[in-house]
Design a protein that fits this description.
Layout lengths: L10 E2 L2 E2 L8 E8 L5 H17 L9 E9 L4 E8 L3 H15 L19 H11 L15 H21 L1
Antiparallel strand pairs: 1-2, 3-5, 4-5
Length: 169
């Protein structure tokens, strides 16, 4: 169970630090879609998927476990859900830098109220995310408090052991 926010929580550069949960850190953003942009959002998802096929490490700086994007209510609302290993401040700062360095826009530009000056005014990006965050009150992790890097390392060990066992046969 995740406690409701209170003033005793640690405060980071950009506001309260949500506690690490068994699923690590994360947030869910729900916002209204700008009229007529649902297909642009879907296209952005396809563009990101293709970019990841070309460069599987593209999003590595974000230390993601997973992302989930959902258009709902007849494509009028959007949910962005991410679980990652860093706290809110680090994730949002890294995301802004990643987008700027890659020279790409963010899917959030298709959401009502998103600041179009986000690349030069990172605080506006952070304020938008905070304002649209819907905190979870319960999360479960099959592998609690394990980082994405630890999972990747365990999979490499497993592959190496499997290869070694195959060679012994």
């Amino acid at each position: 169970m995740i406690p409701k926010h209170d003033d005793a929580w640690e405060v980071g550069k950009h506001g309260p630090i949500w506690p690490r949960t068994p699923a690590c850190y994360g947030f869910t953003i729900i916002a209204n879609v700008k009229p007529g942009t649902a297909e642009i959002i879907r296209g952005y998802g396809l563009k990101l998927a293709k970019a990841l096929e070309s460069d599987s490490e593209l999003l590595a700086p974000l230390k993601l476990h997973y992302l989930r994007w959902v258009l709902f209510d007849n494509d009028t609302r959007f949910m962005y859900q991410g679980i990652f290993d860093t706290d809110f401040d680090k994730y949002t700062e890294d995301a802004i830098e990643l987008f700027k360095r890659a020279g790409v826009d963010t899917v959030f530009e298709n959401l009502e109220g998103f600041p179009m000056d986000w690349k030069t005014n990172p605080e506006s990006f952070i304020q938008f995310v905070r304002a649209h965050q819907c905190p979870s009150f319960m999360e479960y992790g099959e592998y609690p408090y394990v980082t994405a890097d630890e999972i990747k390392k365990a999979l490499k060990v497993k592959a190496a052991l499997s290869e070694m066992l195959d060679q012994m046969q």
